[in-house]
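Please go through the protein record below and explain what the tokens say about the fold. Record follows.
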Amino acid sequence: MSFHLSFAWSADKAWKGQRAGVSLHSHTSISRESIGILFEHGARNPLVCWVLDREKARYQRRFGKPLDFERAYWTSPVTPHEAYSLEAKQIEVTLGLPALVSLTDHDEIEANKLLQLIEGGEQIPISVEWTVPMENTFFHFGVHNLPKDDADIWQARMQQFREFPTLDALRALLSGLLSNQGVLVVLNHPLWDEAGIGIGQHEAVLRRLLDKTRGLIHALELNGLRTWAENRMVIQIAQEYGIVPVSGGDRHGFEPNALLNITGAGSFAEFADEVRAGHSHVVLMAQYRENRKLRCFQTAWDMIREHPLHPYGQITCLDRSFFIRDDGHHAALSSLFTRGTPPLLSNVLRAVRMLESPRLRPALRVALSDGEGLPS
């Protein structure tokens, strides 16, 4: 196994002479982001918990049933074309290399199929971020470069697994995916305790997963929105299990991926073969040195601010957020709040808009500082 780490701000310019830059793990407007998960995390804050309890009680009184956040979701304002262009432009302009971009929406492959059709880009891989339940938590697998002719079949199999998840079924599915030359399977942000079960318990489940899927996962992801301390731990675990680390940006907004790979490969399939053979060279881009919480704040602002020139006409965040009705219809929240933006959301937007001001950015950077030890 050979793993190399470089920094875009260093003088050595390690990517010179490479054939391509690679962007992995990036989202588009096709991804459905659960509002329920946001409220789950928010409920750990006493103030947010109080607001949620009040809103739940108000909803119960008005409609006679509990408020089900799991039936609501939001989508990114970044269209597939914009997402691909964002990632490709950073690689071509900053690194001066041809770009290999793999978009991975949550449990959906439509963005890549659309890009192949519209852009005529056979080189665009069909990829997905697959949600894999395990024990009392879940993990996300980046499955890249599905065979074009069988992509829908594999997508259906992955979706079916989510309904009836068993270890044997997972091993069989991963084994089947690996039988396809050029397919790359990455365990994304493996140490992120997204389900909130406790980092110690999450790591224990992670290790059981890795023990039981040896030889079936090609790489562990170093994530551009996770801390450097967490990514260092991922490198250690990868070395323990003999799995190579690769990059993953996890971009949802308009900041391009903060971590990239560079490669001597001329196509995505060749890059996948390179990683499958245990070779990876990750580059940390300049934005990774910025305060992580400030970067997450900027992404949140990208999500909720208005986009007057949005190509789909989804100008406000209510246009890009949806509620699944009892009849299964997906209704935009803008159609439910016919009198305009609810007061609670208006206050949030007003506060975030004020904090986004360039004049307040230095103060916000200090306020959000958590002493993360970033590489120099």
Q: What stands out?
A: The mean pLDDT is 87. Residues 2-31+76-289 form a domain with the TIM Barrel fold (CATH 3.20.20.140). The radius of gyration is 21 Å. The first strand starts at residue 2 and ends at 7.
